[in-house]
Amino acid sequence: MSIKQELIALAEQISGESNLSAADIASAIRLVAGKMPEEASATKAGLVKQGVAVADAAGSAPTAAEFNALLASLRGGGSIATAST
Prior knowledge:
Layout: H1 3-15, H2 22-33, H3 64-77
Helix pairs in contact: 1-2
């Protein structure tokens, strides 16, 4: 199936109708594009990357280095901001 045919099929699924005009197809595609998740921020939910693995704490009280490794992983994955405000 060509990209054009895929887009037409997608628009028909979104609208629940067939034999759509080019304007209807474009409108349906814009609707879907407007709902695609974006990166998360402090004020809006969104996609975040998986952080790097962090070793379990060696003892009952995590060290500053262990805690900082966890913070770096969370920041790198986008789960928390990179700078305090």
